[in-house]
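User: Can you predict the 3D structure for this chain?
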Amino acid sequence: MSDIYFLENTNKDFIDLYLCYCGMEQCAPLYSFGPAIRPNYLLHYVLDGKGYYYVNNEKYEVNKNEGFLICPNVVTFYQADEENPWTYLWIGIDGEKVETYLKAAGLNNDTLIFKYNDGDLLKDYILEMLKHNTSSSSDSLKIEGLLYMFFSELAKQNKSDPIHKNDINNNYINKAIEFIQNNYHNPIKVSDIANYVCLNRSYLSTVFQNNLNMSPQKFLMEFRITKAATLLYDTDLPITNIAYSCGYSDPLAFSKAFKKIKGVSPKEYRLKKKETTEKFLLNEIK
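Assistant: Here is the predicted structure, written as structure tokens:
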């Protein structure tokens, strides 16, 4: 299991730039997240180890003192290295001028990877945010100030040349992901995906394995389970309803698949996530 520290900011009174959430995680070998789509911009910065970021049919290797940007409404997947799994921090942001601040840091839809040499400083900013976890005006102002300081540091080391880029450029993957994204809540199978992209199942599996290091069946399952995990954390919907909404007609099959991916049952996952949030609300991060 991974060690995780998390804060969700419920006070979003600021307009130009504001924090949605932030956190820090020491990942287990091969720990992955996604395929997933985010509603806001999200930055990850690697404090130690390394991992891999898959987006837009491209693969990036991201090492210590490097980070990656996740853009809204884009399917992404990332995974810790097996031998040297990463520890990273993350910071979700939004606001009317969020793209302006990202540009100052040298980041946009085309430049998704960045370098920064003082990881301890960025870590300190995140830890300070985690401490100021109430909805008081003073904590909100403190978090906002820390957020601007975080971006100020990134802007100092702004370098525009992207790194570790391996082009995959496979339209079949794009079409397959599009189909999964639009139909994961239905009882679709790999054969349906293959028919949509006009490939036989065997060749589709080869394309997925070569480009994403997983089979289309595993990709579909992980996409559904990622969606389910979000619903378990963000809503109070019954687990049976969540199973149905993620394409599982059998709740028992859903629970089995969920435990295979996450290591715990849906019920245990929901309790663990809520307990983690409560710990931060009780100021257990010192």
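The radius of gyration is 19 Å. The domain at 170-274 is CATH 1.10.10.60 (Arc Repressor Mutant, subunit A).
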